[in-house]
């Protein structure tokens, strides 16, 4: 009962959740849990950094493939599935990303109960199988089964565990660790389009996708070896997969709406950017290079803001990134982005940097609103809601792009981002107990 009261006190005191330095921060004392495991976070050391490297490797072919999935979607929409509309093909990638986020709500409690190793082995094997089968796909339902369903389930396991396991090793430096982990997916999103651009014309679909499959296999093997949990896992399995009680907190509700908006825009742009380039009348090479630019800058956006956030506040840095990106989208990308390649590359680079920060900082901000032992479940709960954003964004955006103009699509995404900005601002305000402080380190 005493521990429960302490946790509730932690959750309800804004000053103690700023950087995890309050009295409820286990890293501030030599505390142990009931199983005798130290609750003091290592914040570094060979095992912690090895785990981070493993998580980064796991994210490269799993989440990285999803950030580069636009190159695959545009290829199949002009080849195997040329008879289908952009909206119809969009449902394939939409279901892939949707299942990745939606099933995180199931993976979170499993991670809390069983730890990372068994889950990662199963997820990696399933992901490799999905890539091998994807190379053989020729019909619409083939892609749904292999890429959307099998690939989505596998990615849900790998990505959720890769991020959640960092909460065992980092607290004060969790934003930086999360950014470095997510940088692995940015690297994948930058490298995979370049590989496919080179291999599609020379070797065709099957050989290209099989190459990606074996690259993924190598990353998965190393990642599974390096990643390990630290906290005890022999606690009773939770029957709660979605903690709706968390939504009694206004700050979490507003943050959830913000994350919904961010995921809607990020994966919509990642999946539709090559198609946007094609509808804008630019060359085929720009379709691949634009994704590489986006994800290369996203890599920096996932690392540098994380470093800054550990010093000036996670919410503060995230809020600044959203404001800057919204200005660029509305003032530059919307009116001028489709006019020439130089302008497109510039706005895509800035968008990539900003959106990379959203991806790495949003989970860390969610982690400030719950105890460490519940992080897996709370993370899954927030992204359970966000999953419906990625389910809708590609079909809606694809239909909008095909029936109107590229400018209308960017204007629509700018409006969605504005909603996310307002929600994030309200979440920060609620975290400060409705007492706005410009210099508060949150």
How would you describe the overall organization of this protein?
The chain is mostly helical and 442 residues long. It folds into two domains: 44-230, Growth Hormone, Chain: A (Up-down Bundle), CATH 1.20.1250; 243-441, MFS general substrate transporter like domains (Growth Hormone, Chain: A, Up-down Bundle). 74% of the residues lie in helices and 0% in strands. The chain contains 15 helices and no strands. The protein has helices spanning 2-11, 46-59, 63-67, 69-77, 86-102, 104-114, 117-134, 140-164, 174-226, 250-279, 284-312, 314-336, 341-367, 375-403, 406-431. Helix 4 runs antiparallel to helix 5 (86-102), helix 6 (104-114) crosses helix 8 (140-164) and helix 12 (314-336) packs antiparallel against helix 13. The longest helix is centred in the middle third of the chain and has 53 residues, at 174-226. It starts with a helix and ends in an 11-residue tail after the last helix. The model is unreliable at 1-31 and 34-38 (pLDDT under 50).
